[in-house]
Design a protein that fits this description.
Shape: globular
Largest sheet: none
Helix content: over 70%
Low-confidence stretches: none
Mean pLDDT: 89
Strand content: under 5%
Oligomer: single chain
Distance between the termini: 39 Å
Order of helices and strands: HHHHHHHHHHHHHHHH
Number of helices: 16
Length: 321
């Protein structure tokens, strides 16, 4: 999107602040959770109203989970944009990542505060009906999502906790929550397969954070706040590679768990080859570029790889297993 001539507090300004390219990180866990639920209950049951009520079909909580994840991702981006500007962390001259709306003056701080209230309230409004499908426990999960959305930028990221939060809130929580809420009441449980799939998902999405912190290594080193700073650049490159590779084997393993058919296992493994090749090529690019704003290309490639991983998992789950 062209960032020239952005009117203050315009729709374009808020769209840039929402960072649409990051939304794949919110979509992939829900996609995986829904695919696992459909596999276990069947397509017909997924789109069949319960007792004639359309709003009680499993498709409804699946859509609500998707919307909640999207709004929470946008909310998290707004929180990050606002608080980093307030704390003076985004220097226009030295920043290597994409431009930030508040720092650039595209969105004023009062306008962003109002927007934060709206997006947080909207996320709660979208997520609240999930109580009808998953019980009142959904309120606690939703409250934790909102709370850590703010704590990530304001506190926890400064202590190297970003990778742990990604594993939790882009892996375990969304995949397991989506699966649980989508399944029919009599079948609502979290299986070992779902847990393993959620962990694999979290590892893949963490590659995005690794690239982001790898790019900002020199700036972050002054405060020593990230895992990448503590590991060093060379080990960070290795970590990036291992996260994607381990996630691939974990997802493949958990999907074929319990099926002894060698042919099926081979077909499923072959389906993940495109992601593995893309991930390997992206790591080579990351190592080649090394430093500077050009690493933003690697960030985009990693987001693409994440989406490929999610789509591959969904295809294998729904059409092959």
């Amino acid at each position: 999107m062209n960032e020239n001539h952005v009117a203050v507090n315009s729709g374009k300004a808020f769209l840039l602040a929402a960072r649409p390219k990051t939304l794949s990180g919110a979509a992939v866990p829900v996609m995986i959770g829904v695919a696992l639920a459909i596999h276990d209950m069947g397509w017909e049951r997924f789109v069949t109203p319960v007792a004639g009520d359309w709003y009680r079909m499993p498709l409804v909580p699946a859509l609500l989970c998707f919307l909640f994840a999207m709004v929470m991702q946008v909310d998290a981006n707004f929180v990050n944009d606002y608080f980093d500007c307030v704390r003076g962390k985004d220097d226009r001259e030295t920043r290597l990542g994409p431009k930030r709306a508040c720092t650039e003056g595209w969105v004023t701080l009062p306008a962003m505060r109002r927007c934060l209230v709206v997006t947080t309230a909207l996320a709660c409004l979208v997520g609240l009906p999930l109580v009808c499908f998953g019980g009142w426990e959904m309120v606690l999960v939703g409250a934790a999502c909102v709370l850590f959305c703010f704590l990530y930028t304001t506190l926890l990221a400064q202590h190297g906790m970003g990778d742990v939060l990604v594993l939790l809130f882009f892996g375990l929580v969304p995949v397991c929550l989506t699966y649980y809420a989508t399944m029919p009441p009599a079948s609502q449980t979290i299986t070992a397969q779902v847990v393993w799939a959620s962990l694999a998902c979290g590892l893949v999405i963490d590659t995005l954070l690794v690239v982001n912190n790898y790019r900002d290594y020199d700036q972050d080193r002054a405060v020593g706040k990230t895992l990448i700073v503590r590991m060093g650049r060379e080990r960070a490159e290795q970590l990036y590679g291992w996260l994607g590779n381990i996630a691939t084997y974990m997802m493949w393993g958990c999907l074929v768990l319990g099926d002894s058919s060698f042919v099926l296992m081979l077909v499923c493994f072959a389906c993940f080859v495109p992601y593995a090749l893309l991930h390997g090529a992206t790591r080579v690019q990351m190592r080649r570029i090394g430093r500077g704003r050009e690493l933003n290309k690697v960030l985009g490639m990693t987001a693409r790889n994440m989406f490929v991983f999610g789509v591959t998992t969904a295809i294998v789950t729904l059409f092959i297993l």
